[in-house]
Structures are given as C-alpha cells and as structure tokens.
Amino acid sequence: MSVQGQASSPSADGGWSPSPPVPCINMTMVRSRNRGTRMTFPLPPSGPSCCLSGAGHLEEPINERDDRKAPLKRSLHFSVRDSFRRFFSSAPSAFQAPVDQSAHSTGGDGKNSWARPASPFGLPEDGDINARSSAAEDDCATLNWYVQYSSVITSPTRGIPMSTTTTTAPTASELIARAEKLVPLLRERASAAENLRRQPEETIEDFSSAGFFTAMVPAEHGGSALGLSEFADLVRVLSRGDASAGWIAAFLISHSTLLYRYGAQAQGEFFADKPYGLTVAAAGPPGAAAPVEGGYTVSGTWRFGSGVLHAEWAALSAMSPDGPLSVVVPVSETEIVDTWHVPGMKATGSNDIKVEGLFVPRHRTVSFPVYSSEHNEGAALTEYPLIGYPMNRTLNLIHSAVAIGTADAALELFAAGVGKRVRMQTRQKQIDEPITRQTYGKAWDLVQVAGLQLHDALAHTDRVYGRDSAGPATLADRARINLGLTGSGQKAFQAVDLVVRAAGASIFRTGDPLERIVRDTQVMRNHAAVDFETMASVAGGALLGVGIGDYAEPMF
User: Fold this and answer.
1) How many beta carbons lie within 10 A of that of residue 494, not counting itself?
2) Distance, CA of 341 to chain centre
3) Start and end of every Acyl-CoA dehydrogenase/oxidase N-terminal domain (predicted)?
4) Longest dimension (CA), the chain
5) Residue 400, Cα to own-chain centre: how many angstroms?
6) In this predicted structure, what is the pLDDT of residue 423?
7) Cβ neighbours, 10 Å, residue 487
C-alpha cells in the first residue's frame, strides 16, 4: 500500500512554492493482537518529515519522531479536511505544506508562527501511527486513523502554506515577568486612557507583543495554555498598573477560550490567520434569533461590551424558538453604541453592541446550555483542560483578580506617599503614628488573605472540574468556589477603603492615582461577579444542605 505526498520549499519572496512531488511512500501494515493494525513507514530521503495526501484531498505533514498522538476514527481525507476547517473557511482541494526541519518558531515570512497538531482527540501510549486500510483511490490509500502524531504545524503567515515547527510559547513565569515590566507604563498611561475612554492602541500592541493574547490558547495551537491560577496571577499584575488595562487584558486574553468552545468549522473562521481571536462577550439583555435557511437572523442590543473597541469578534446571547443560543459575529458587522460614560473603569470602553437582522450562519451558533457547559463541542478538539470546564469557571475569576491587583496598587501608592505626610495638628509624620501602621497592616493582611482565598477557589475548581475529578461538582463544591471568588474581591475592596481613608484629602485632586482607584473600585464592586453579600446568602444555603432557593442553578 502506498500514500503519495508533496513537499514545498521557500521561494524568493519569503513564501512557499511547491516542490516536485515526493515518491509514494510504502506503508507497512502490521497486525497486533493487543493493538489492532499498526502502520509504519520509512523516512523519505529528504528528511524526517513527509507530507501525506488522503484520497487526493488535503496533505498533512507526518513526522515519525513526534511523540504526541491523538486518536481519530474517520478516514484520513475527512479528518484532515475537518481539521483544517479550523484555519480555512473553505478547504481547498489540495494544499502544500512546507517542511521545516530546523524546529523554530518563525514562519516563512519571518513572522512569529503558531503551532498545533492536526486533530487533537486524545493521547495514546506511544509514537506508532495506527491505521486500518480500506479501498484505495488512484494509488492513494484511504486510511482510518486511530492515533495521530505530535507534529505541530504553524499557522499560515502567507495564505495557505504552513510549516512544521516546535512551539516556543512563553511560559507563565515569562508572561508575568513581561507584565511586571509593563506596570509603570500602564500607570503612566492611565490618565490618558481615561480621557480616551478606552485603552490606547499602543497598550493593545504591547499586550500582543508580550504574547498575552495566546496565553489562554491551547498548547497544540502554539499557545501558553495557562491554568486558572497562572491566569489570575497575570491579570493581578497587569491590574496593578491600571485597573482598566488589567480588565481589558483579562477579557481579551480569556475570550479566545469562548471561540475554542465552538466546532471545527467555526474555528476555521475564527483562527484563519492566527490562533486567537480578540473577542468581546455580552450576554444581557439577550437578543432575538429567528431561524432562516442556513442559520439565524439576529437582532438586539447588548450592554457592557468590555473590550468591544479592540475586538474582532462578538460572542452574544440570543433567544430562539430552539432555546437560548450563543452566537458569534464579526464586530465589523455590529454597531457600537457610545454609552460608556461612567465615573470609574472609564478606560474599558464597555459600550453597547447592536445588530439588526444580521444573518449568522448555523456553524457560528450553538445551544447556550451546551456551549457554556463542559460538554461543548470544542472540548473534544483540544487537550487544553479549561475548554472542558463550565464557562463560568474560567471567566468569573477575572473580576476578583483585577480587584486584588488594584488593591496591590493602592498599598504600593500609599506606602510611597505616607512618609511625606505630616499631621498638621501634631507636626508628626503620619508614618510614625501607630494608627497608620495598624491601618496599613490590616489592609496588607486583607490583600494577602484575598490572594490566598482566590487561589484556593481556583485550585478547588481544578480538583472538581479537571480531568482527574472524582465526579460531578456538588453544591458544596460550587459554594466553596463562589465564596472564594466573591469573598476575595470583597477583601480587596476593603483593603482599598482602609488605605484611602488613611491617605488624606489630597488624594482626591484630579489625576492622583489613588483617586482613580477609588472611582474604579466603586464601579467594580457593583459587578455581580463580586457580589459577596448575595453569594453568601445563596452559598450559605448550599453549605447548610437546604439548597440554593430560586437562584439559577447553572449560574451557581
């Protein structure tokens, strides 16, 4: 049996041009009692990688030395076509994949590339490629894959061509170190950002250059695939620079996970030219979706679109005759309504989003209860565990992480200024007063406890919803998580209140960073995600074994 392949080579303009087709590669079928039929193949003369075409459709690079595999149970040409839909809105009848044996992270045009395996569906135990043979077409066999290799393939930086590479996504510690370097810059820009009522474009560019937008992209797509605690730490650091900047970064970073919850065809649109999509999410009030041929027409106005001024996609909720839906539309097809005139968090630009009679193809719509649950379609397409968590478990931490980072900034700014203040009545330095030291100690303790409580909630989230979890989350589990998230945010706000009251009236002069923090925290604390008082009453009932009353169970 043989499978034909074709390679590509660099062209003069930095792109890729097809090389002459490589000879058919002889595949040896070995039957094993324990593992079924196993397929092996020799390395081609040109190097360790080769391209295989299934039934004349698409070619897929295969590297025999790779060690990550994923089971597929469909014929090669279907699985390859389905796989590439996540990058191309319509798969071509054939494509050439350049082979890059230097294992770097730069594409053919010198730009940073991103990586993924072709079809992530699980991990078997070794590097063999298992297959069953079926009828051959034109001397090219159609194969039913059981497992797949670990080769990572960069995104197209110039049209369709893609190259084999090794991902060099920044680690969590590297991302946090880059965030630390941005803190002074974000603080310096905060006043101008407030006047703009959005983040400056240079801040968004800094986030992109630092690799933040791939922080919550699956590793097989070249992302850092941060865990919840790592993500919270990153958001906390950025929020120490400016609460609005941390807020926008958090949503733009994490909302790629919303797109990865969709199926392969939709992902083909979302990630056609890069492995992340800058996305705004707005749920309320829900719009209306009317069924039409091929999809729905959607109308509505959604509030609080944080990040919409920087977003490419909008993930919206809508009611249809089929039930509640999640729909994703290009922001370019929406109207952004300038409604964000507020005293705090001004630089988030959280304006309204409006569409009227907009057609949304069916593949960019999905049942909201399924989409928001661990059973979403995208969870089967990736090894990134967070895509398989309920949606509220990956997003609701943001508000508390921003609050704690803002409290960190308040402590830092207070400590930097208190040594200069002299009490007029006593002519004593304020820093020498026991009450000042006590106040700062209490505030510091609150922030310390808030951070620990947030991390405890996130660690428990991983225990309950991770792939090694013992069973479904109980109401008591969810109560612990929800109290941890809302309680940590409340403690952060209390710490800010303590140092602000001790800082004196001069901080309320316009432009003082602490004055901005006062306004930002006043707006933040009214968000439902940090409403500790309501959550305490609901979670208390769950912990006492009397249920959660009429609170919406999927949102608990």
Assistant:
1) 17
2) 28
3) 190-269
4) 96
5) 17
6) 80
7) 21
34 near 130, Cβ under 8 Å?
no
Q: What residue ranges do the domains of the chain occupy?
A: 172-393, 396-555
Cβ atoms of residues 272 and 259 within 8 Å: no
Question: CA–CA separation, 483 vs 502, rounded Å?
Answer: 28
Residue 161 phi, psi dihedral angles, 5° rounding: -55, 145
Using CA atoms, how far residue 254 sits from 133, 218, 226, 232, 398, in Å, is: 42, 11, 10, 11, 9
Q: Report DSSP letters for 319-356, one per residue.
A: EETTEEEEEEEEGGGSEEE-----SSSGGG--EEEEEE
Fold classification of 172-393 (topology level)? Butyryl-CoA Dehydrogenase, subunit A; domain 2 (2.40.110)
Of the candidates 46, 165, 43, 51, the one whose C-alpha atom is nearest the C-alpha of residue 97 is 51
Outline where 350-396 has alpha helix (H).
368-371, 391-395
Please name the helix (run of DSSP H) or strand (run of DSSP E) that holds residue 423, with its range, or none: strand 422-423
Tokens representing 295 are 């999809």
Mean pLDDT by 10 residues, the chain (556 residues): 34 37 34 30 34 32 34 28 27 29 32 32 30 29 26 28 49 97 97 96 96 96 96 98 98 97 95 95 94 96 96 97 95 96 96 96 96 93 94 94 98 89 79 90 98 97 89 93 97 96 83 92 93 95 94 85
Residue 396 is predicted with a pLDDT of 93
Distance CA 177, CA 233 (A): 11
* 149: helix, strand or coil: coil
Task: Give the whole-angstrom CA distance, residue 492 versus residue 498.
Answer: 10
Q: Which two tokens stand for residue 496?
A: 């800010």
Which CATH architecture fits 396-555? Up-down Bundle (1.20)
Measure the CA–CA gap between 472 and 89, rounded to whole angstroms.
36
Mean pLDDT, rounded, of the chain? 75
Q: How far is residue 294 CA from its own chain's centroid?
A: 28
Per-residue pLDDT of 295-326, as tens digits, reads 999 999 999 999 999 999 999 999 999 999 99
Angle between helices 434-465 and 397-418 (to 10 degrees): 160
Tell me how far the alpha carbon of residue 22 is from its chain's centroid.
39
Query: How many Cβ atoms from other residues are within 10 Å of residue 366's Cβ?
Result: 21
Read off φ and ψ for residue 118, nearest 5 degrees. Answer: -65, -45
Distance in angstroms (rounded) separating the CA atoms of residues 165 and 335: 40
Taking residue 422's Cβ as centre, other Cβ atoms within 10 Å add up to 13
Tokens 């897929």 correspond to 60
| CB-based contact 27:139 (threshold 8 Å) | no
State the helix-helix crossing angle for 434-465 and 475-502, rounded to 10 degrees. 160
Listed in sequence order, the residues at least 6 apart from 309 whose beta carbon sits closer than 8 Å to its beta carbon are 198, 199, 336, 349, 351
pLDDT of residue 555: 83
Q: Are strands 279-292 and 313-320 parallel, antiparallel or unpaired?
A: parallel
Report which of 515, 505, 535 is spatially closest to residue 190, judged by C-alpha positions.
515
